[in-house]
Amino acid sequence: MKRELTKVQLIEQSIIRKYRKELWAPFINAIRTYDLIQPGDRIAVCISGGKDSMCMAKLFQELQRHSDIPFEAIYLVMDPGYNEINRAKIESNAKLLGIPITIFETNIFQVANNQEKSPCYLCARMRRGHLYNKAKELGCNKIALGHHLNDAIETALVSMMYASKIDTLIPKAHSEHFEGMELIRPMYCIKEDSIKAWCQYNELEFIQCACRFTENCAICDNGGGGSKRQEVKNLIRRLKKENPEIEHNIFRSLHAVQLNTFPGYKQDGVMHSFLDTYDNH
């Protein structure tokens, strides 16, 4: 008699089988291409409660089952001051997905919400600091965040159009303030639409950005109609109708910057001009 699979097993099976090309393969590709995980790593897989970080947690669980690289993972949830409904939703989703979460509380929302100037920037910085601090306290040497391919290309376009610079997220980075700690983004090669499709297929619902500044937030992944990031999402969506490869083209361009054709660039805080070496040729 064929054994009936549990909900958790069906969800896990969908990652390896149905969405292997869209989720599992690009997840593994990012880890290998950017050398994100080494033997002996103890990684704090940071879960905000949204679709991206929850999907990342399941991918990490699968990786631990199938990888030849020995590493540890702690599924870390920081509560920045969620209301009871959102907190309960995160806990119930973690139970539904079979993710053994470790939760710790902070007062980030309370502090950020009292700031009239740049509350989103402050919130983002405080979140990162608290995550690093807790991860280090738990003996971790890395934190993993759920930023995906669309986050990288949207950040680049937002910075060009609204901040007058070309800037984006990178697959991994050493912490400037927490010695020995590193940030990794193992979902770097995964498209957001693939994560949404996986959620819909498994009938999963996750919390959105729970901050009252969301509608004006240019940093939050789930920004509302007024966010600059949402404007860029809409732009890419329109361009994609004419060119289905637009997301991959922008993403690949981030890996193929032609410095010889740029009039200027900034490295390690120092501005450089093409004129610096112009007469050397």
Describe the model.
- The structure is a single chain.
- By secondary structure, the chain is an alpha/beta fold.
- It is 45% helix and 13% strand.
- The chain has a single domain (7-212), classed as Rossmann fold.
- It has helices at 7-16, 20-33, 51-66, 84-97, 108-113, 119-137, 149-162, 192-201, 228-242, 246-254, and strands spanning 42-47, 72-79, 101-105, 142-144, 172-174, 182-184, 264-267, 270-273.
- Strand 7 (264-267) and strand 8 form a beta hairpin.
- Helix 7 (149-162) crosses helix 9 (228-242) and helix 7 (149-162) crosses helix 10.
Helix tally equals 10
Looking at the overall shape, the CATH architecture is 3-Layer(aba) Sandwich
Q: Do you know the CATH topology? A: Rossmann fold
Helix percent reads 40-55%
How many beta-strand segments? Answer: 8
Average pLDDT reading: 90
Rg, Cα atoms, Å: 20 Å
The level 1 CATH classification is Alpha Beta
Concise synopsis of the structure shown:
The chain has 281 residues and is of the alpha/beta class. The chain has ten helices and eight strands.
Secondary structure: elements and pairs:
Elements: H1 7-16, H2 20-33, E1 42-47, H3 51-66, E2 72-79, H4 84-97, E3 101-105, H5 108-113, H6 119-137, E4 142-144, H7 149-162, E5 172-174, E6 182-184, H8 192-201, H9 228-242, H10 246-254, E7 264-267, E8 270-273
Parallel strand pairs: 1-2, 1-4, 2-3, 4-6
Antiparallel strand pairs: 5-6, 7-8
Helix pairs in contact: 7-9, 7-10
